[in-house]
Specification:
The complex is a heterodimer. Chain A is of the alpha+beta class. Among the domains of chain A are: about 110 residues, Immunoglobulin-like (Sandwich); about 90 residues. Chain A contains 17 helices and eleven strands. In chain A, strands 1, 2, 3, 4, 10 and 11 form a six-stranded antiparallel β-sheet that branches. By secondary structure, chain B is α+β, with helices and mostly antiparallel strands. Helix content of chain B is about 30%, strand content about 20%. Chain B has eleven helices and 14 strands. In chain B, the strands form three sheets. A seven-stranded antiparallel β-sheet of chain B has the order 12-11-10-9-8-13-14. In chain B, strands 1-7-2-3 form a four-stranded antiparallel β-sheet. The longest helix of chain B is centred in the last third of the chain and has 15 residues. Classes of the chains: A alpha+beta, B alpha+beta. Chain B: One of its GO terms (molecular function) is metal ion binding.
Chain lengths: ~525, ~325
C-alpha cells in the first residue's frame, strides 16, 4: 500500500500555487475577478508573409495611429535578423523592415494594442484629396452616367450622393450589374464620386471580432463635404464610423510596399482583452513597460487558440464531476467535452438540433450497413464518409432554406460523430433502443452542462486571465479521483435496500419491545 | 416537491451504516489496490483464463475451436458441423457482450435459445465482428472461441428462463465473501445481466440456499416467467463451488474477483469466466453490504496464510446469512 501523504502534499501544493498566482494577478496587475468595469483593448497583429529572392529586402507596412474611437497604447514588431524603423511619411506612419540578404519564405510581425476610447483625439486627415479624372471605357461610362443622374436627383450634397449611389448600386439593376463587372465596389464608388466632382478617397480598415485569425482588410471610402467627411463601407452600404471598425491605412498609400520579394500577403489576427479602467487609462497617458508572466506574451494567433484550449479543463472537470459524484452514464469518456466544444462554435440550439439530426440519420443508414457483413474498420470508415455526406446534405438544405445557422453543423468533429453512431448502433442491437436513449441522452446532457460552464462569460474571463486556475482545476480533479464515497445515482439505486433494512430493524425493535412486556 | 424528490434518494449515511459498497469505493479501495494491472490479461482473455484454470485442475467448458484470423472465418461451418449446440464468444469480451448461443442446428439454420434462426452468414459476420474487436475492451483485435454447450443441471429447472443460470461468487483475497445466482428472464432476453432484468438470488455463503431474490433492484419471491418459488433454490455441490472459487485466487493472483460458475449435469461445477471488476448488484441480491465482510478479511492481516480449505471454512462461519425476517425462511442449517 502506497502512502497517501505525497499525494495530498502535491494536491495542496497545486492548490496553493494556483491560488497564489491568481491573487498575484488580481492584486499586482489589478486584473478583476469578474468581467465588469473595464476598457476594451484590441490587440491586433499583422503578419506579413512573402517569398524573398536572395537579394536585399525592404518591406514597408502601413500602421495605424490613434483615431476617432481608438487610442494607440502600444506597438511592437518581431522580425529576427531584420532592421526595423518606424517612419513618418506623408502624415502617416509606417513600419519599415530591411535586411541585406534573405531568401525563402519570410514572416514579419507587427503588433499594436488599441484601446476602445470614445474620447480619442486625432481625427482623420481633412486635407481634401485631388479629384482624379480617369477615362472610363464604354459601355461602363454610360452606365455610370445613368446611375449618377438617378442618384443626383435624390441627393443634396456629396455625402448624400454617396449614400444614394450605394443604394443604387445595391439594387441589382442592369446598370449596377454591369458596373459590378467593371470594378470592385470601393474603387467604383470613388471613381463615380470623382466623376461627379465629389472628393473621396480609399481607406483600408479592419473589422474587429474577438479571436479572429487570418483576416483581410476591408476597403472603405472616405467622402468629403467641405472640411467634413463621412466613411462608407461599400460592401455593406453602412455609413459612419462603426465601433468595431479600425482604420488601418488612411493616408492613401499602399498597405505593403515590398522590394526584393514576391507573393506577399498581409493577414491580421485580433483578440479582445479587457483591462480595468485605471490600468488602461494609466497606460494611455504614460506607457510603462508591461512585463507580465501571462499568455499575453505569445503571438496573437496562439493567444486566440489558447483562449479556446484553456476552456477544455473546465469541460473536463464537469465530466469528472458528473461521472464520479453524480454517476451519469456517458458513451465514451470525453466525447461530451468534444461535443461541447462543437456547441461553442455552433451555438447551443443549432448544435443540439444538428447533432440529433446527424446521429439520427446516421443510425438509420448504419442499420443498413450492418446487413452488409463488413469488417469493422471498413464499416467505421464507411460511417465517417456517410457522416460527411449527411453534413454536406444538411448544410445545402439549410442554405437553400435560408437558414445560415444550419451551415454550422460542419463544426462537429466528424470522427467523433462516426464513433458515436457506431457505438450507439451496437448498443441498439445488443441492449435495445432504451439503452441508446439513456446513454446518448446522458452524453448530451453532460455535453450541455459542460457547454454552459465553458461558455459562461465569467469562466472565459477567469480561465484566460488567471492561469493559476488551471492548477486549481488539476488539484480538484486529483481529489475527485480519490473520492470513494457514493455516487448520487447509487443513493437512488440502493434506496429500496435501505428501506427494507429500516423496516426490518423496526420490526426487530417491536419484537424486542414485546419481549420486554 | 423537493421532499418528494429527496424521498427517492437514500441517505449516504444509511448506506454507510449498511456497509453498501459504491462504485468509487470499489474502484479505488479494492480493484486498484488488490488487482495488479499486469494480471488483467489473465482474466480479460477467456482463452488465458481457460489455460490457467486447466493448469489448476478447475473444470471449464470444452473448447471446440478458436478462430484467430479473418481468413479462418470461412472454416467456421467445418468446425461446428458435428456439434448440435455450441456457443461463440469473444475471448476479450466483457459483461456477456457478443456471446451467441446456438442450441440446435441442421447445417443450414442455427437456432438460438429464443427460437430465432440464424444463418451461417449471420454467424460468420458475428465472428468477423469479434475479430475486429467490436466486443473487446477498448476495441482491441480479438479472437473468437467456440465452446461446447453446457448441459445444465435439472436442479435449476423452472428457476431460469431460456438461459444458463450461473453462480457468481465474490472472492476477496481468496475468501468467498458473497454469492448470488443469476437467473435469466424473458425481460433479460436469456442473458444473466441484472441491469437488463435478470433475477438475482442472494445465496447464503454457508449453505448455498437462497435468502432473497431481486429483480430491477426490488425484492421478489417468485420467478416472473415460470412462477417458481425462488426461496426453494439451493445450489448443489455448494462446498465444491466455494472451494473452486476460492482457488481462483491462487490461480489468477487477483485479490478481488468475481467468479462465474455453472453446474453441468455430467461434469459438475465449471468455471465460465473470471471478472476483475465485478459489479455491485450482488449487494442488492443479498440485501447486505460488502464492506463489513471485506473489512473482516482485511483485518486478518497481510501475512496470515490460509489454505483454500481454511478460507472456505472461515467464510462459511463468518458470513453465514442471518435470518431474513421479511422473507421468513428457515435459519440456515450448518452442514
Amino acid at each position: 500500500m502506497y502512502s497517501r501523504k505525497p499525494f495530498y502534499i502535491i494536491v495542496a501544493a497545486l492548490f496553493l500555487i494556483g491560488f497564489a498566482l491568481m491573487l498575484q494577478r488580481h492584486f499586482v496587475y489589478e486584473v478583476p475577478w469578474l468581467p465588469g468595469e473595464k476598457r476594451q483593448i484590441w490587440s491586433i497583429e499583422a503578419k506579413v508573409e512573402f517569398e524573398a529572392k536572395g537579394k536585399p529586402v525592404k518591406a514597408s507596412l502601413a500602421i495605424p495611429g490613434s483615431q476617432p474611437g481608438f487610442t494607440l497604447m502600444n506597438e511592437s514588431a518581431a522580425s529576427p535578423g531584420y532592421g526595423l524603423a518606424f517612419v513618418e511619411a506623408k502624415g502617416g506612419s509606417r513600419a519599415e523592415w530591411s535586411i541585406r540578404n534573405a531568401s525563402g519564405p519570410q514572416e514579419l510581425y507587427y503588433k499594436v494594442d488599441m484601446m476602445h476610447d470614445p474620447f480619442a483625439k486625432a481625427p482623420l486627415s481633412t486635407e481634401i484629396p485631388r479629384i482624379a479624372q480617369t477615362e472610363v471605357p464604354e459601355p461602363y461610362a454610360t452606365a455610370m452616367d445613368q446611375v449618377l443622374t438617378q442618384a443626383k436627383e435624390r441627393s443634396a450634397d456629396g455625402l448624400t450622393l454617396a449614400r444614394e449611389l450605394l443604394k443604387e448600386l445595391k439594387n441589382s439593376s442592369q446598370n449596377a450589374e454591369l458596373l459590378a463587372q467593371y470594378q470592385s465596389p470601393a474603387p467604383l464608388l470613388i471613381e463615380m464620386l470623382h466623376r461627379a466632382a465629389v472628393p473621396a478617397r480609399l481607406l483600408q480598415g479592419l473589422q474587429l471580432e474577438d479571436g479572429r485569425r487570418r483576416q483581410p482588410l476591408v476597403n472603405l471610402v472616405q467622402v468629403y463635404e467641405g472640411k467634413e467627411y463621412e466613411i462608407f463601407n461599400p460592401d455593406t452600404g453602412e455609413q459612419g464610423n462603426q465601433e468595431q471598425l479600425l482604420m488601418w491605412e488612411y493616408h492613401s498609400s499602399p498597405v505593403l510596399d515590398l522590394v526584393g520579394g514576391s507573393n506577399s500577403r498581409v493577414t491580421f489576427t485580433m483578440i479582445e482583452q479587457e483591462q480595468p479602467v485605471n490600468v488602461a487609462l494609466a497606460k494611455k497617458f504614460d506607457q510603462p513597460h508591461w512585463i507580465n508572466v501571462s499568455l499575453y506574451n505569445l503571438p496573437l494567433e496562439e493567444q486566440a487558440l489558447f483562449k479556446g484550449i484553456l476552456l477544455v479543463p473546465i469541460g473536463v472537470l464537469v465530466v469528472v464531476f458528473l461521472r464520479i459524484i453524480i454517476g451519469i452514464k456517458t458513451s465514451g469518456t470525453f466525447m461530451p467535452v468534444l461535443i461541447a466544444m462543437a456547441f461553442i462554435q455552433t451555438s447551443l440550439i443549432t448544435g443540439l438540433v444538428g447533432f440529433l439530426i446527424i446521429v439520427g440519420t446516421g443510425l438509420i443508414l448504419r442499420s443498413y450497413l450492418s446487413h452488409l457483413n463488413l469488417l469493422l474498420v471498413a464499416r467505421i470508415s464507411a460511417v465517417i464518409i456517410m457522416v460527411i455526406g449527411i453534413i454536406g446534405f444538411f448544410s445545402i438544405i439549410a442554405y437553400q432554406l435560408g437558414l445560415t445557422e444550419g451551415m454550422k453543423i460542419t463544426f462537429f468533429p466528424m470522427i467523433i460523430l462516426a464513433w458515436t453512431i457506431e457505438r450507439m448502433s451496437i448498443l441498439w442491437e445488443e441492449e435495445g433502443p432504451k439503452e441508446v436513449v439513456k446513454q446518448g441522452g446522458g452524453s448530451l446532457m453532460v455535453a450541455v452542462v459542460a457547454f454552459l460552464a465553458m461558455n459562461s462569460e465569467v469562466v472565459r474571463h477567469i480561465t484566460f486571465n488567471f492561469l493559476g486556475l488551471q492548477l486549481i482545476v488539476m488539484a480538484v480533479v486529483l481529489l475527485l479521483g480519490n473520492y470513494t464515497g457514493y455516487r448520487l445515482t447509487e443513493l437512488k439505486r440502493f434506496k429500496p435496500l435501505v428501506d427494507e433494512y429500516n423496516t426490518d430493524s423496526k420490526a426487530d425493535n417491536k419484537i424486542e419491545d414485546k419481549k420486554h412486556d | 416537491m423537493i421532499k418528494r424528490w429527496l424521498a427517492q434518494y437514500a441517505s449516504p449515511f444509511a448506506l454507510g451504516d449498511m456497509g453498501i459498497m459504491g462504485m468509487n469505493q470499489r474502484n479505488i479501495s479494492y480493484i486498484s489496490r488488490y488487482n495488479p494491472r499486469r494480471l488483467y490479461p489473465l482474466v480479460d482473455d477467456k482463452l488465458e483464463t481457460k489455460r490457467i484454470a486447466l493448469d489448476a485442475g478447475v473444470t471449464v467448458p470444452d473448447l471446440i475451436g478458436v478462430i484467430e484470423f479473418q481468413h479462418q472465418v470461412s472454416s467456421l461451418l467445418d468446425k461446428i458441423k458435428d456439434w448440435p449446440g455450441f456457443c461463440i464468444k469473444p475471448a476479450k469480451g466483457s459483461g456477456g457482450k457478443g456471446i451467441v448461443v446456438i442450441v440446435s442446428q441442421d447445417g443450414q439454420s442455427f437456432l438460438k435459445p429464443s427460437g430465432k434462426a440464424e444463418s451461417i452468414n449471420d454467424l460468420e459476420r458475428h465472428v468477423s465482428n469479434i475479430l475486429a474487436g467490436l466486443f473487446s475492451l477498448g476495441g482491441k483485435p480479438d479472437v473468437a472461441l467456440i465452446e461446447a454447450l453446457i448441459n445444465f443441471d435439472d436442479v435449476f429447472d423452472g428457476f431460469s428462463y431460456e438461459g444458463v443460470p450461473d453462480t457468481r461468487v465474490i472472492v476477496f483475497k481468496g475468501f468467498p465473501v458473497m454469492a448470488m445466482m443469476r437467473l435469466s428472464t424473458e425481460a433479460s432476453d436469456g442473458k444473466a445481466n441484472l441491469h437488463q432484468g435478470a433475477v438475482g438470488v442472494g445465496l447464503d455463503i454457508n449453505s448455498g440456499r437462497a435468502i432473497r431474490a431481486v429483480q430491477h433492484n426490488l425484492p421478489i419471491r417468485y420467478h416472473p416467467d415460470t412462477g417458481r418459488d425462488l426461496l426453494e433454490l439451493k445450489v448443489p455441490n455448494w462446498e465444491l463451488i466455494l472451494s473452486l472459487s476460492s482457488s481462483c485466487y491462487e490461480m489468477s493472483g487477483l485479490g478481488y474477483i468475481g467468479t462465474d460458475m455453472v453446474l453441468d449435469k455430467f461434469k459438475g461445477p465449471m468455471l465460465l469466466e473470471l471478472n476483475a471488476r465485478p459489479g455491485l448488484a450482488i449487494q442488492t441480491a443479498n440485501g447486505a453490504g460488502l464492506v463489513p465482510r471485506l473489512r473482516k478479511v482485511e483485518k486478518l492481516g497481510r501475512y496470515a496464510t490460509f489454505s483454500p480449505e481454511e478460507r472456505v471454512r472461515f467464510s462459511r462461519r463468518e458470513f453465514a446469512a442471518e435470518v431474513q425476517l421479511s422473507m421468513k425462511t428457515e435459519p440456515p442449517m450448518p452442514e
